[in-house]
Amino acid sequence: MKRTIQLLSMIALVITLFSTGPLLAQGKVDVNKADVKGLMSLKGIGEVKAKAIVKYRQMKGPFTKPEDLTGVPGIGGKIVQQNKAYISVGNIDMHK
User: What is the value of pTM for the model shown?
Assistant: First the structure.
């Protein structure tokens, strides 16, 4: 039974890594492209905050710098600072 649980845990880990791998290129999460699960890989970002980031992004448009995340309800400067090295804002076309 213990081996089965360990095997299932390993499978879940591998699936998670493969599904978030493209979003974590070079160890960074592109907050303009990441889905809820990808955003949840950031420290201090659970499902509720990740959904708030996606909603904010859909309503206000792309983030231009990591600090823009502080405009999302529930995301403060401390969370941004903890994750700054892991946040990417991708390539943004500012002329749209």
Answer: 0.69
